[in-house]
Amino acid sequence: MKLFASEALARFTLAQAARAFAMKSATPMRRCRAFAGILLLCSTAAQATLIVSAPWVRPTSERTATDAYMVLNSSEAAALTKVRSIVATSVVIRGATGVKTNPRLALPAGVPVVLAPDTFHLVLRGLAHPLKPGDRVPLVLTIESAAGARQEISITAEVRARPPADDERHAPKR
Length: 174
What we know:
Blueprint: H1 5-11, H2 14-22, H3 28-45, E1 50-57, E2 65-74, E3 78-84, E4 88-94, E5 101-102, E6 105-107, E7 113-115, E8 121-127, E9 136-145, E10 150-159, H4 164-169
Parallel strand pairs: 1-10
Antiparallel strand pairs: 1-2, 2-7, 2-8, 3-6, 3-9, 4-5, 4-8, 9-10
Helix pairs in contact: 2-3
């Protein structure tokens, strides 16, 4: 009887596969099927890897809005569809200066997407309190894969006047 992958997954759990593989009385064919089942279960559970580098947020003097920046690198084609933070009433994805809000930001596989001043960036609106240098801002990024699967990634961005890379460039030489 042939089973499609989804039917096989419904009937074959990881625990069953491990037991079948470990049985002393298991035939080589049964062990081979169990091992294939383990691989199938593991491969279907895999998700894209998203690397978030150098997240930072501009300081504010009043309780208004500010911008957040970072570098996003996804192992598979995906999109940033939503961002939220407990310090802001809303967070929107915005394009370059003068460009309207974007509902989603494409993350091509293996290509770094830089959120920086004068390019794509995040705008935190309705801040709960002013943000001063050294504060930490929690952000939750919602990433949607090309297949439609969603995952949330929690990060913390430091409030600072300039990007972290600028601090490295301006550091005194030893």
